[in-house]
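in:
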């Protein structure tokens, strides 16, 4: 069903809906609780939080039996509440299941105002909706919208982290991340090839045990200790040439860029093959 306003098929609205990451049909206990609150307070047979696509409905929260059909597409398409006191004599909802006699549905909107779905209550008997009841449903619809926005932001953050991980994992340069104590927390495929340690072997071990030649281990430990007492690494933000070692003990000159993060450091390294590496002070 698509009305004159055409919101059901609006491309931006559908993109906002996809961006929630909630179209897989996974139950959301927080939305179930809002639905239970509505059904309990209003003494209705059902309360539903529905996400509405162009041609399908995804139930995100519920309390009570779920009707096969509800007027939630109408609510989204018009971006306005829909109140039905008795469906048996209301042409707007002709042909709906017998259990849907009274209905009150409000749009659930994204943070920027797009109707993503509905918060609807269903009763199996006629009723005249009171203003205080409608205000409660409207407030719960707003609360559901806030919860869905939080889920959308979590989904976006997760997707960003996965894209970054994929980018680092497949970078041509060796990449390793270490925490503030020098313990490896990340090790990409290029690092595996360069140093001979698999990521499963490297993560969780001190970086000094993996790539730092024995004669530089003490200086490395002193540098970490200095930074824990407020000192600053002379390597951060610079492109420097160093000597590293692989798992077989062979030394290799590398060029390294070091970046500091809140929880530690990211190092990007590539081998130097055409000039002598120098050891920074």
């Amino acid at each position: 069903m698509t009305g004159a306003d055409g919101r059901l098929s609006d491309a931006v609205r559908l993109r906002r809906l996809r961006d929630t990451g909630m179209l897989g049909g996974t139950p959301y206990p927080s939305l179930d609780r809002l639905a239970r609150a509505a059904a309990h307070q209003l003494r209705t047979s059902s309360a539903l939080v529905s996400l509405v696509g162009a041609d399908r409905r995804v139930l995100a929260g519920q309390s009570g039996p779920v009707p096969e059909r509800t007027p939630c597409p109408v609510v989204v398409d018009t971006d306005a509440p829909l109140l039905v006191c008795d469906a048996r004599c209301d042409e707007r909802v002709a042909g709906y299941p017998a259990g849907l006699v009274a209905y009150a549905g409000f749009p659930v909107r994204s943070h920027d105002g797009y109707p993503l779905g509905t918060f609807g209550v269903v009763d199996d008997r006629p009723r005249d909706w009171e203003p205080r009841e409608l205000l409660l449903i409207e407030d719960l619809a707003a609360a559901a919208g806030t919860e869905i926005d939080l889920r959308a932001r979590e989904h976006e953050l997760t997707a960003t982290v996965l894209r970054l991980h994929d980018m680092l994992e497949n970078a041509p340069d060796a990449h390793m991340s270490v925490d503030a104590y020098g313990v490896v927390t990340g090790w990409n495929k290029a690092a595996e090839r360069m140093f001979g340690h698999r990521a499963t072997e490297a993560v969780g071990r001190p970086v000094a045990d993996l790539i730092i030649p024995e004669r530089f281990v003490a200086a490395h430990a002193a540098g970490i200790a200095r930074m824990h007492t407020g000192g600053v690494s002379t390597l951060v933000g610079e492109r420097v040439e160093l000597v590293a070692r692989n798992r077989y003990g062979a030394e290799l000159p590398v060029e390294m860029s070091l970046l500091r993060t809140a929880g530690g450091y990211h190092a990007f390294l590539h081998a130097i093959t055409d000039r002598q590496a120098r050891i920074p002070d």
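note: The radius of gyration is 29 Å.
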